[in-house]
Amino acid sequence: MTQYIFEFIGTLVLVLLGNGVCAATSLNKSKAKGAGWVVIALGWGLAVMMGVLVAGPVSGAHLNPAVTLGLAIAGSFPWASVLGYIVAQMLGGFAGASLVWVFYKDHYKATADDPDTILGTFCTMPAISNPYRNFLCEVIASCVLVFVILALGFSGNAFQVDGVAASTGSLGSWPVTCLIMSIGMSLGGTTGYALNPARDLSPRCAHAVLPIAGKRDSGWSYSWIPVCGPMVGAAIAAGLYLLVFSGC
Questions:
Q1: Is the per-residue pLDDT at 114 higher than 60?
Q2: E strand or H helix that includes residue 160
Q3: Are 26 and 81 in contact (CB under 8 A)?
Q4: For residue range 115-169, what is the model confidence (pLDDT) as tens digits?
Q5: Burial annotation 223-244 (CB, 10 A radius, 16+ → b, else e)
Q6: Which of 70, 135, 201, 215 could be cross-linked to 238 through a Cys-Cys bond (beta carbons 3.0 to 4.6 Å apart)?
Q7: In angstroms, what is the C-alpha Rg of the chain?
């Protein structure tokens, strides 16, 4: 249960800071409005880092159902804990998105005439609607995410002292931060790189139930793509990892 609690808290922090940078750069009258894609990519990378720093020592800081699935398929995480982790992550994502709304409530009111922008601070929507291509983009980006995370844990990437593997501690969050920023800058332009059902579906549910002034529908016709795409990508990544690294 302690691990589930820390997955909840870590995911809450991730979404609070990640969706927070989207709100800061998008909502009217925000001092950060218009800061742009680079700030968003940096903000999301650092949001993941902060979530990992909080949850990592206790739960391993998956903070993402796709990561949990990928690690389980790769044999690096017990299947018995998968459901509990995913539930905790989804609840954390909902709570984090709700806190962003509370924090920026005045700015949401000031942006009531732009419901698409409001939705974009909660969840992803495609730049060009093409379900097949959008799904493929999420699969590829999520596959890269999980494959590199698995590769980071391989013995050749482990920190060693006199030939003995040692924990990198908080430094272990930095490569993942760089990975998230790289994916955002390189592969995020088509779908907004959801990569994480807890980052997309849970905030989308929050958007649906919160009393947000001027909001539109929550984009439910698209909502399956940032859920199924990352999960499929994670499964492929785990299979590739087992295939590529099994003989090393």
A1: yes
A2: strand 160-161
A3: no
A4: 999 999 999 999 999 999 999 999 999 999 999 999 887 656 665 555 555 445 5
A5: bebbbebbbbbbbbbbebbeee
A6: 70
A7: 18
CATH topology of domain 2-245: Glycerol uptake facilitator protein (1.20.1080)
Query: How many angstroms separate the CA atoms of 86 and 7, rounded?
Result: 9
Give the Cα separation of 72 and 52 in Å (integer). Answer: 18
- CA dist 135 and 209 (Å) reads 26
Report H helices in the chain: 2-26, 37-59, 65-73, 82-103, 105-110, 115-120, 131-152, 173-187, 197-209, 225-245
Residue 17 scores a pLDDT above 70 = yes
Look up residue 79 and give its two tokens: 């299947």
Contacts of 69 (CB under 8 A, 6+ apart): 82, 231, 234, 235, 238
SS3 assignment, position 165? strand
Contact 168, 152 (CB under 8 A): no
Among 37, 217, 13, 210, which Cα is nearest to 109's? 210
Say if CB 220 and CB 54 are below 8 A apart: no
**Residue ranges covered by each domain of the chain:** 2-245
pLDDT level of residue 245 (50, 70, 90 thresholds): confident
Convert the pLDDT of each residue in 177-222 to its tens digit: 999 999 999 999 999 999 999 999 999 999 999 999 889 999 999 9
Higher pLDDT, 97 or 165: 97
